[in-house]
Amino acid sequence: GEDVEQSLFLSVREGDSSVINCTYTDSSSTYLYWYKQEPGAGLQLLTYIFSNMDMKQDQRLTVLLNKKDKHLSLRIADTQTGDSAIYFCAEEFGSGNTGKLIFGQGTTLQVKP
Amino acid sequence: NAGVTQTPKFQVLKTGQSMTLQCAQDMNHNSMYWYRQDPGMGLRLIYYSASEGTTDKGEVPNGYNVSRLNKREFSLRLESAAPSQTSVYFCASSLRAQEQFFGPGTRLTVL
Questions:
Q1: Cα–Cα distance for residue pair A18/A39, rounded to 1 Å
Q2: B48 has a chain A CB within 8 A of its CB
Q3: With an 8 Å Cβ cutoff, is B2 touching chain A?
Q4: B72-111 confidence digits (pLDDT tens)
Q5: Do the beta carbons of residue A42 and residue B102 sit within 8 Å?
């Protein structure tokens, strides 16, 4: 079945770049997503990438997609303490563009001042 | 504009009790979703509803039922709660499949 894997923890210093990695299994996924969860809150969509794209940039966020290796990454430039959160990678499963998502376990990003 | 609201925020049940988690959205979205989040795991889809009057199973539907009461409201029912259903439950809604908006969650403990 479909599966999404992420490393569990990443620690960086404020001002550095953060790179969070994700691998997925369903090569037919049309969209891949990055969500952010702050403590005690629901998830917030950060960005998503269409499967025929290699890269998407949105302000401090860069998403890279390697379809051959089924590898997705999220780079946060100039990481700030407010970026400390759990980041989830997700892919769609099933057909029909329904928004049914499979999530990874989440990567906890710790930003040290 | 409240977005997605969920009630209650916290709930403690005994094994075998039943309860309904409520979710409402005021964004006129067609699709709504129920997820559960367990420690150290990503969210898992329980049920979703593509439009008013329709529901479909997600990854982990066993032990749950849902009702899409109208376009705004999507409820999740536990008929006979089990300790394995201790989790944080999130409701979400979307107009387009690519952008889901999440509620704040309900933290449920089953003793």
A1: 19
A2: yes
A3: no
A4: 999 999 999 999 999 999 999 998 777 899 999 999 999 9
A5: yes
Chain B contacts of A90, Cβ < 8 Å? 42
Interface A-B: count of C-beta contacts within 8 A: 62
Per-residue model confidence as pLDDT tens digits over A40-74: 888 999 999 988 889 999 999 999 999 899 999 99
Give the separation between CA B59 and CA B101, rounded to whole angstroms: 19
Contact A4, A102 (CB under 8 A): yes
Residue B86's nearest CA partner among B3, B19, B27, B24 is B19
Task: Collapse the DSSP code of A23 into the 3-class scheme (helix H, G, I; strand E, B; otherwise coil) and give the result.
Answer: strand
Please name the residue of chain B whose CA is at the shortest distance from the CA of residue A42: B104
